[in-house]
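G., before I forget:
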Amino acid sequence: MPVKKVDRRTVIKESLTVFRQKGYHNATMSDIAVACGLLKGSIYHYFSSKEELMKAVIQYLHEWYKREVFALAYDTGKSGAQKLEELAAISEQIFYQEPGGCLMANIGMETANTYPEFAELIKGFFEEWIAALAFIFEEFFDSQKARSIAELSVGEIEGAVMLMQVYQDKGYLKRAHQHIKQRFIAAEAAATEKA
Amino acid sequence: MPVKKVDRRTVIKESLTVFRQKGYHNATMSDIAVACGLLKGSIYHYFSSKEELMKAVIQYLHEWYKREVFALAYDTGKSGAQKLEELAAISEQIFYQEPGGCLMANIGMETANTYPEFAELIKGFFEEWIAALAFIFEEFFDSQKARSIAELSVGEIEGAVMLMQVYQDKGYLKRAHQHIKQRFIAAEAAATEKA
Amino acid sequence: MPVKKVDRRTVIKESLTVFRQKGYHNATMSDIAVACGLLKGSIYHYFSSKEELMKAVIQYLHEWYKREVFALAYDTGKSGAQKLEELAAISEQIFYQEPGGCLMANIGMETANTYPEFAELIKGFFEEWIAALAFIFEEFFDSQKARSIAELSVGEIEGAVMLMQVYQDKGYLKRAHQHIKQRFIAAEAAATEKA
Amino acid sequence: MPVKKVDRRTVIKESLTVFRQKGYHNATMSDIAVACGLLKGSIYHYFSSKEELMKAVIQYLHEWYKREVFALAYDTGKSGAQKLEELAAISEQIFYQEPGGCLMANIGMETANTYPEFAELIKGFFEEWIAALAFIFEEFFDSQKARSIAELSVGEIEGAVMLMQVYQDKGYLKRAHQHIKQRFIAAEAAATEKA
DNA sequence: GATGAATGAGACTTCATTCAT
DNA sequence: GATGAATGAAGTCTCATTCAT
């Protein structure tokens, strides 16, 4: 028998999948326990409540994105276009491989009006995402404009992910990414020309 | 006992508010009954289940948008810019006045993976929205490009509405609308110049 | 449109069918209303409660059997064997044509321990049935023995009807009837021989 | 709070009593929970639904009869008359001690037309009962005739139990048993005489 | 006489959570 | 650390019954 390594981290990772696919209220502690290979009651050794677990999942995912995704935006060795390319690639990889769309947006929309604590954490995630994109755009735009474009871009991606889920068609995300890149390239071209 | 007449339409409209704010799973039949001034069981006089009620709400909202919003796009007496202006105005009015964001996106993201019947209806809604915007963009773009821009625009609006909820900041939606209008005006200018 | 004649008697007759097939607790006033072509509330014009309706149905069926079935046993123009033959024929006709077995036994067994008022009425029915058969057997048996055989015979028929329902096989009832007739014929033969 | 351990078997046994006395539809999960000393929801720890519980009860009772009652029929150390005697004794003991009549017949008649899954299980019970009696009768009758007498006998017993309930008079069952024994003894005498 | 909207009690069931083992 | 039995509140839904129209 393979020794089941069930630790806090495992519970979080399995819960992440369950919450992303089923949403917060529709996911039961039982669903999560099954996903972890545990019994219902055992989850409470790691997390004092479903709410705490959800928060831990959001935080874990935020950290993960920070480290694995957003960090790319600050990589000094790459051009802005390259960075956007890589961000798009990793983003598509994530959303294509893991069914259920974007946990942050899903949970955010489901609970925005009723669980302010979740919204706060989710806001932190989007804040860093926007900041990362804004950093790239600042190469050719002033700080305010860069921020504005970053917000729009995040909106475009999330909107596309939503349509992707509703339509069961991956094209939306790809096209949103292309659009974002083109906008950057156009700005780059305009800046080069001017110089 | 005073016999209040609460008709089917009223139940749908009150449910719409409850579902938009609380989501599908977090909204209880009791919540809805209270909103309607009825008892829990009385809702079942008109709808055989919570699921049926949700579907009726989606359909009602779809019809409403068709009639009150999407129709504007086909109004022959107005310019494309004017139409976009009006669509933006009415859209903002809706999303600012009624708390909870966009029911279609909220419910869509909450249930996309678990309630295919909802997703199908919601898809129908987005389909008509996209078609309406595409119709406007066809003035200056070929059919395929117009469709693509329309999809992107809907994504931008929905992404903005999501950020609006998470950030509790109405600016996102306004800026998304402005962006969409500017894209149209730029295309218009380019077309005029060429001529 | 055929004018629907919905009177008390119709309600009783339709209810009879519903109760026989679904039992007392599993039959809803709605089921009955549908069977009558009425709406739920309208039944209450004729009967003050489900319980009253059930009692009326039992009484109606009792009267019907008395008039159409049990009376045969007292027909002076026929031999005992003939009477048993005819009773068997009509009994089979009823149980074969109308699905759901014997309402009296069904309701009796379902409610014997919880609705003494039903049991009392149902007892009245069986009392007359037993008396009718006993009357026939008294031709060749003393009163006590005749009663005893009659009780056994009714038990045989009802037991057979139960097995008929569980097995979905009509043979049980037929064989029970044959057995009852043979018993009579054997007694007849013994009596003739003795003389 | 004292944690009482109420195991699956106990739930089944308590439910059996409740179902026999109140019937399937009239017995509530609350009734059963009270009988078990549990709360309503706790029953679902062992059984996923009322229907599943009912089925488990039927199966449990079937097994019990098989082991404790029907097995007697195949006991090689006893004469047929002895076996019938013992079967009658144990049968009377059961039906006299435990109020509510025969669960198999009660539930069978209540649900035959609406719950085919129950009917199937109940049929299995009667099948083994009939087979057991037929085995005894095969001592003096050919296989087909023995089966036929066994069916009749089971019908007689069940019919008697029904009358016993309706009349609240235990005599019916006793007389049915006597009748069955006498039939066997008469056959035995006939066979002996012939030899 | 009939309707149908509403009631309110109560049915079955789910589920986050607790806790002795 | 893990289990699984139990809890209790709450959820969806049903249904006999009432009553204004």
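The domain at 1-54 of chain D is CATH 1.10.10.60 (Arc Repressor Mutant, subunit A). Residues 64 and 121 of chain D are 14 Å apart (CA to CA).

More on Monday.
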